[in-house]
């Protein structure tokens, strides 16, 4: 099962970076797999995990209810995607090596 660490949408197109431990002004946040709208960093058990970072550029502001989940956010965006990018990264706890 996929664990969603952070759902963020309606992020300004002029934002070029997100500072650690920040919440971008004006952006909206959905419900992650922990049931809240906060960022949950990587914390895999004893083995290497694969992490997917997906970014969608859309042509409209997404109008969603309070704390939508990933599926609801993707559904709202699906006919508005101009560009998309995905980064795949791996992480494991240092003590598990």
Task: Characterise this structure.
It is a single chain. The protein has 97 residues and is mainly beta. Helix content is 8%, strand content 26%. The longest helix is centred in the last third of the chain and has 8 residues, at 70-77.
Short description:
This protein is mainly β.
Low-confidence stretches: none
Order of helices and strands: EEEHE
Strand content: 25-35%
Q: What general outline do the C-alpha atoms trace? A: globular
Task: Please state the average pLDDT score.
Answer: 90
SSE inventory with pairings:
Layout (H helix, E strand, L loop, with lengths): L7 E2 L18 E2 L19 E10 L11 H8 L3 E11 L6
Antiparallel strand pairs: 1-2, 3-4
Question: What descriptors fit this protein?
Answer:
single chain, about 100 residues, mainly beta, two-stranded antiparallel sheet, 1 helix, 4 strands
